[in-house]
Specification:
The complex is a heterodimer. Chain A is mostly beta strands. Chain A has no helices and 11 strands. In chain A, the strands form 2 sheets. In chain A, strands 2, 4, 5, 9, 10 and 11 form a 6-stranded mixed sheet that branches. In chain A, strands 1-3-8-7-6 form a 5-stranded antiparallel sheet, with no helix packed on it. The mean pLDDT of chain A is 95. The chains are: A mainly beta, B mainly beta. At the A-B interface, strand 5 and strand 10 of A face strand 4, strand 5, strand 9 and strand 10 of B.
Chain lengths: 115, 113
C-alpha cells in the first residue's frame, strides 16, 4: 500500500513535443506529491509539487495533473527541450499529516528529448 | 542549491568490511535522510533523522545504522558490507515537513566486491 508505480520506464520525445509521465498510488492518506528531476551524476532536485485538494498545478512548461478518485497523477512537460533530458521521479508522502517527511518514490522515467 | 556535501564520492570496498558515509549540510536543517538509488527501484529511504540524536528506520534499513551527533552531520554505516549494498547513496535534508523541500546531495557511489 506504500508503493508508487511510475510509467513509462523510458520516453523519447521530439523537441517541441509534450512529454507525459504517469504515477499511481494506493495509500489515500498521502497528502503531498512532488516530482523530482535528476541529471546524470547529480542528486535529484525538486521540480514541482501538488497537494490532493487541487486537480492541476502549473509552473512554466511543467504541469501536474492530479486525479484523486483514480489515485493517479501525472507530469506534463510542454514544448519539451533537449535540456529537459533527465530522469524524472514522482513521489508521495504524508508530509502534512506526519512529522517525518518520508518520501516514497516511483521507479523513475528516463526522458530523452531529440533535437 | 542547499549546501549539502557527501563524502566519499566514490568507494570500493570488500564484503564484510564496515563502511561509513558522511553527509554534511550547512543549512541548519532539522531533517536529514539517507536514500539508496538502484535501477528499477527509484530511491528508497534507509534511515532518517528529525533532530540531533533522533533517528528512525526507513523502508530498507536492514544492515545499516545511522548517527547524528550534530545538526550538520548525518552518518550512515554499513556494519558489514554485502554485494547487495552496492548502490548510489544520496543524503537529503529539509527545514521541516509540509511544503518544505528536500534538498539532495551529489551522491556516493559504493561498490562492494
Amino acid at each position: 500500500q506504500q508503493q508508487v508505480k511510475q510509467s513509462p520506464q523510458s520516453l523519447i520525445v521530439q523537441k517541441g513535443g509534450i512529454s507525459i509521465i504517469n504515477c499511481a498510488y494506493e495509500n489515500t492518506a498521502f497528502d503531498y506529491f512532488p516530482w523530482y528531476q535528476q541529471f546524470p551524476g547529480k542528486g535529484p532536485a525538486l521540480l514541482i509539487a501538488i497537494r490532493p485538494d487541487v486537480s492541476e498545478k502549473k509552473e512554466g512548461r511543467f504541469t501536474i495533473s492530479f486525479n484523486k478518485s483514480a489515485k493517479q497523477f501525472s507530469l506534463h512537460i510542454m514544448d519539451s527541450q533537449p535540456g529537459d533530458s533527465a530522469t524524472y521521479f514522482c513521489a508521495a508522502s504524508l508530509s502534512f499529516s506526519s512529522n517525518t517527511g518520508k518520501l516514497i518514490f516511483g521507479q523513475g522515467t528516463t526522458l530523452q528529448v531529440k533535437p | 542549491d542547499a549546501g549539502i556535501t557527501q563524502s566519499p564520492r566514490h568507494k570500493v570496498t570488500e564484503t564484510g568490511t564496515p563502511v561509513t558515509l558522511r553527509c554534511h549540510q550547512t543549512e541548519n536543517h532539522r531533517y536529514m535522510y539517507w536514500y539508496r538509488q538502484d535501477p528499477g527501484h527509484g530511491l528508497r529511504l534507509i534511515h532518517y533523522s528529525y533532530g540531533v540524536k533522533d533517528t528512525d528506520k526507513g523502508e530498507v534499513s536492514d544492515g545499516y545504522s545511522v548517527s547524528r551527533s550534530k545538526t550538520e552531520d548525518f552518518l550512515l554505516t554499513l556494519e558489514s558490507a554485502t554485494s547487495s549494498q552496492t548502490s548510489v547513496y544520496f543524503c537529503a535534508s529539509s527545514r521541516g515537513t509540509g511544503w518544505e523541500t528536500q534538498y539532495f546531495g551529489p551522491g556516493t557511489r559504493l561498490l562492494v566486491l
